[in-house]
Design the sequence.
């Protein structure tokens, strides 16, 4: 984009923001933070494409003033972390909804492959899950408690171990994006096939509902967030394959930064999933209505935060800027 077109496209927004700052108008901290996010994005673009220009100088000055105003507000400073998850990340993530959709499709296809393979080959589940796990689960089935494996170990130990492992898997899915989207796609494929084989194994034993009632307690958030972490890896991987108008280096740096922001957003959800697995899943004899409430409540939380809320917030911001 030429500099003149860039200025024309954004000047009204900059002028409105400048007036709000210099005239010390009463603008609430949330709106100020929203404007600041847009401004820093414009500044980064100008630094890349219009170095040493007057536009860059103007945006630098405006960003400096905005920074001072935002961080002079003690309440906003104290709530910086909250502001990230409440406003900054959802506004940012809206642009990657299409990538999330394709990530979900890839994971869904992989899961179907795991299902079909297990139904057609009895040995496939052992190849994917390992003999030790399958044999232990078979023993638990004979004892009348198919999900007993989730009741072993201390509650705190299980919580910490599962949470750390899940975060490791998430960062692995992201990190594999450094070798283009193929690396992350492989991580998603592997986990999808494993999921399909896992539940089909219980299906063949006529225990699908019993297993699902227990495992999806923590698995709803856990699996959903692995898909989101895969989205982060694809964002970084796609930045290498499809740099668009950026140089490949600039595109990769932007993709890596955006992907990291996405994967960091998943950490609180993995903590929630780890807590559920450590402290709740072991009580598989809970009433069905309670288990379903936790499962569908977890699903609603993920869908709302990563899909519905970003759309609502983006529309609200767009309406406010007009």
Sequence:
């Amino acid at each position: 984009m030429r500099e003149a077109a860039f200025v024309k496209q954004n000047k009204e927004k900059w002028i409105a923001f400048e007036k709000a700052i210099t005239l010390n108008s009463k603008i609430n901290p949330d709106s100020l933070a929203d404007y600041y996010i847009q401004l820093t994005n414009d500044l980064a673009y100008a630094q890349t494409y219009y170095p040493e220009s007057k536009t860059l100088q103007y945006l630098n000055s405006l960003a400096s003033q905005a920074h001072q105003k935002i961080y002079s507000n003690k309440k906003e400073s104290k709530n910086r972390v909250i502001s990230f998850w409440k406003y900054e990340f959802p506004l940012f993530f809206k642009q990657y909804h299409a990538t999330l959709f394709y990530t979900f499709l890839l994971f869904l296809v992989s899961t179907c492959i795991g299902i079909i393979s297990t139904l057609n080959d009895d040995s496939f589940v052992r190849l994917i899950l390992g003999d030790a796990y399958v044999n232990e689960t078979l023993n638990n089935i004979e004892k009348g408690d198919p999900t007993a494996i989730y009741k072993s170990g201390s509650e705190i130990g299980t919580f910490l171990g599962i949470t750390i492992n899940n975060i490791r898997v998430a960062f692995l899915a992201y990190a594999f994006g450094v070798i283009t989207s193929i690396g992350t796609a492989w991580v998603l494929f592997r986990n999808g096939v494993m999921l399909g084989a896992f539940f089909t194994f219980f299906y063949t034993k006529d225990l699908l509902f019993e297993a699902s009632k227990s495992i999806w307690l923590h698995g709803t958030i856990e699996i959903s967030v692995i898909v989101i972490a895969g989205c982060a890896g694809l964002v970084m991987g796609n930045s290498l394959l499809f740099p668009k108008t950026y140089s490949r280096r600039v595109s990769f740096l932007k993709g890596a930064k955006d992907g990291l922001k996405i994967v960091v957003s998943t950490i609180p959800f993995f903590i929630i999933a780890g807590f559920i697995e450590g402290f709740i899943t072991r009580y598989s004899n809970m009433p069905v209505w309670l288990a379903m409430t936790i499962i569908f409540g977890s699903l609603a939380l993920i869908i709302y935060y990563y899909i519905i809320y970003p759309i609502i917030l983006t529309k609200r911001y767009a309406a406010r800027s007009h």
